[in-house]
Each structure stands twice: as structure tokens, then as C-alpha cells.
Amino acid sequence: MLNISIVLYHPDWQQVAELTQVFLQSKKVEHIYWIDNSPVVENNLPIQSTKISYSHNARNIGYGAAHNIAIRESIYDDVPYHLVINPDIILTKETLETMLNFMHHHPQVGSLMPKVIYPNGELQPLCKLLPTPIDVFGRRFLPKKWMAQRNQMYEMHASGYDKLMNVPYLSGCCMLLRTKAVEQARLFDERFFMYPEDVDLTRRIHRNYLTVFFPHVTIIHNHERASYKSFKMLWIHAVNMCKYFNKWGWFCDKERQLFNQTAINEYL
Q1: What is the pLDDT of residues 154-192, one digit of tens each?
Q2: How far apart, in whole angstroms, are the C-alpha atoms of residue 216 and residue 230?
Q3: Which helix (H) or strand (E) holds 34?
Q4: Does residue 233 carry a pLDDT above 90?
Q5: How many structural domains compose the chain?
Q6: For the chain, what is the total number of helices (H) and then of strands (E)?
Q7: How far apart are CA 66 and CA 48, in angstroms?
Q8: How far, in Å, are 111, 127, 167 from residue 102 at the CA level?
Q9: Which whole number is the average pLDDT over 188-206?
Q10: What angle do CA 252, 208, 77 make, to 5 degrees?
Q11: Are 52 and 32 a contacting pair, CB within 8 Å?
Q12: Which DSSP string corresponds to 119-148?
């Protein structure tokens, strides 16, 4: 009932293998797709299984475009759920199956993200309002004290991260998707090489389904925040966010205003 895609780029194969072994323990997992955007094809895969498909792209086609390869297979095979997940996630079989069980019993949910923490136990505030330009660029280039209050609102800190929430922007590090909802929303937008593809997809699913933060299970994310460490990644982030605002509107985005105000009224 579930397919899984993991997009790779110069991966830590031990990390990939450990995550994949968890999935292979579950009878609910039908197929796992390793989609490799690395420059060199990997010939010595750490696990062999009929449930695993490895594919190598001739170039780095981007995060969303790579996941779309697997999501299209889920749509074609009529697999009801598809998990988009980063290789640097740690979770258990029980966590995965609890998420699936919730989705199965709540057909109005199109996308689900669990509670996410750092390895040290600190919360990752990955429930967000739809971003405005100041939310994206202000937090990167303005003094933190100027943005502190706005950032608290943007990341929905006042919600407490302790209850189910219907959130307009969920992180792409771990997205459990209802395949029909993604098909209706038309998959990841491949114009985005990296970064805003998750907010773009979540808001499109949010139009017709609930996009849920599910705090009843917790996963660990070894989040490196690459754009804070590399000028190249910062540039990629900035360019793709500009594409996002060109698509949806920089300052006039009525849907953003509606979705954000609804979330603020209900949870903040």
C-alpha cells in the first residue's frame, strides 16, 4: 500500500542502508526507489532486494523532479500512499505504520508530516505559514533581532507543536502523501531545482485536502542547512525562491493571505 522514494546526491550509503532496512521490515511497503542525482553511478549497492529499484540520472535534475520519477510509478500502479523522505532521517517501522494507519482512517488528509527533532532532541519547527519575501530573505540577510518576532509567527511556535494541525506549508524532508491527492495537485513543480518545491506542493494539496502536522510520532532529522554553509547553496536557494514568488506573487497573493490567516486564527 506504500511506495517510498529517496533522492540521493553523494550519499552516505550506510545511512541509506539503515533507513531502507527499516522500510523492508514493514509488510505495508511495496517498493522503495533510490533515485541518484550524483555524477557517478553506484555499482556496489549496500542492499539487494526485489523491493528496491536504483536509478541514476545523467545529471542532477533536482529534488522534486527526481521524486516525481517514483511518484509517477505510484500513480501508474495505483499505490495509495507515497512517502517522500530524505536519506538523513531516522525512524522506526512502528512510526511509519502509525502514520499510514492515520492516513487510512482519515481520507480527507492529503499529506502528513510527523514531529521532527534534531539528534540532540531539539524540535525542528517545520510547520510554517506560506512565506512572504520578507520571511525568506529577511531571516537570511537582516539582523536576527529584527526578525525574531516575525520568525516566531512564520514557524508557528505559539502552536506548541503538540496537537494535530492543518498547516499550509510542511517540510519535504518527510512527506507521507496520498497518491490521488498528489495526482490531483500535479506532482512537484520541476521548475524548482531545490528548496521551495515542498511549500509549492503542500499549498496545492492544501486546496482540496488537509495537510497535517502529526505530533503523535517523532522522527530524527540530521538537518545540515546547507544554504547556511555554502554560498553556492545560498545562491540556489535565492534563485529558486525568486521563481516561487514569480509563480505565486511577491506581495499580492490572495491564497497565501487566506491560508495563513486561517492557520493563525486556529492555532496561533
Answers
A1: 999 999 999 999 999 999 999 999 999 999 999 999 999
A2: 34
A3: strand 29-36
A4: no
A5: 1
A6: 10, 11
A7: 21
A8: 11, 19, 16
A9: 96
A10: 125
A11: yes
A12: TTS-B---EEPPPPHIIIIIHHHS-HHHHH
Give the range of the structural domain holding residue 160, as residue numbers without chain letter: 2-267
- In sequence order, which residues have a C-beta less than 8 Å from that of residue 81 and are 6 or more positions away? 1, 2, 3, 74, 100, 103, 176, 177, 178, 179
CATH number at residue 20: 3.90.550.60
Task: Determine the Cα–Cα distance for residues 244 and 240; give it in Å rounded to an integer.
Answer: 6
pLDDT at residue 69 tops 70: yes
What radius of gyration, in Å, describes the C-alpha atoms of the chain? Answer: 18
Residues 165 and 127 sit within 8 Å (Cβ to Cβ): yes
**Whole-Å CA distances, 141 to 145, 146, 238:** 12, 10, 11
Residue with cell 517498493: 31
3-state class of 113 per DSSP? strand
Nearest to residue 237, comparing CAs of 227, 225, 252? Answer: 227
Task: Answer for the pair 188, 201: CB distance below 8 angstroms, yes or no.
Answer: yes
CB 198 within 8 A of CB 174: no
Task: Using the structure block, give the residue that is written with the C-alpha cell 506504500.
Answer: 2
* 54 DSSP β-pair partners: 34
21 in Cβ contact with 41 (< 8 Å): no
